[in-house]
Design a protein that fits this description.
This protein has two domains: 4-125, Immunoglobulins (Immunoglobulin-like, Sandwich), CATH 2.60.40.10; 128-218, Fusion Protein Consisting Of Minor Coat Protein, Glycine Rich Linker, Tola, And A His Tag, Chain: A, Domain 2, CATH 3.30.1150. It is of the alpha+beta class and 221 residues long. The protein is 16% helix and 45% strand.
């Protein structure tokens, strides 16, 4: 069963388990809610990994044909907030990963005196596997050798964290603690070869998503 998270205002979270330090750029394309808007500059962009922690601040980001490039972002889930003098731009939640498109749409509207630009509702449905955890467990175990099964059973509990792209591809798998390299390779191979991942949904649209599972949730279900 999918888990639906309704987040009001600025409640967004990120789970990080020793993620890759590789850096990426994200692309923002402005969707203008008024034909008279010509947004060529983002005065300030705040990038946060949690609601109370601003990770980076970018200033004076200029566009090319209403397309903005934000550089130097590591793999993860973030919230972006924007400030311009003349327009209100809705904050967004983004996933950055090595196989994600890393392209996002922002919406701009002219600021009106007395308007409240700070409230928004974000409804997210996490990535899932078709048929749920039991189906994932069956798919995961079907090609394991006896030695691989024993290695998993004898290991301490751990969490595995990864990203599922819009196309249902798994990438950037990481672990909550150090485990045997052989065990890591087995888990990575089985997760990436599973074919029936369902991507996340955000406000009714298919998006890249992240997922964190316990060993007991799917490896030995």
């Amino acid at each position: 069963m999918r888990i639906t998270l309704t987040l009001i205002a600025i409640t967004l979270t990120i789970i990080v388990f020793g993620q890759d330090s590789t850096r990426f750029s994200l692309t923002l394309k402005c969707r203008q809610n008024n034909s008279n808007i010509s947004l060529s500059l983002l005065d300030t962009v705040y990038l946060s990994s949690t609601p109370k922690q601003t990770k980076k601040i970018y200033t004076d980001i200029h566009s090319s044909d209403s397309i903005f490039i934000i550089p130097d972002i590591s793999i993860g889930k973030y919230r972006l907030e924007f400030f311009t003098h003349d327009y209100f731009i809705s904050r967004i939640s983004v996933i950055i990963c090595s196989k994600c498109e890393n392209n996002f749409v922002i919406s701009a509207s002219p600021k009106k005196p007395g308007s409240n630009c700070n409230n928004f509702t974000l409804v997210e449905v996490s990535p899932d596997y078709e048929g749920g955890l039991k189906a994932l467990s069956k798919e995961f175990r079907k090609d394991l050798t006896k030695n691989e099964r024993n290695l998993i059973k004898s290991s301490a509990d751990f969490k595995v964290h990864f990203y599922v792209t819009k196309q249902g591809k798994v990438c950037d798998i990481s672990f909550s603690q150090d485990i045997a390299e052989e065990l890591k390779n087995t888990i990575i191979k089985s997760l990436t070869e599973a074919l029936h991942w369902q991507p996340a949904i955000q406000n009714g649209k298919i998006v890249d998503g992240e997922l964190s599972l316990d060993k007991r949730d799917f490896l030995l279900n």
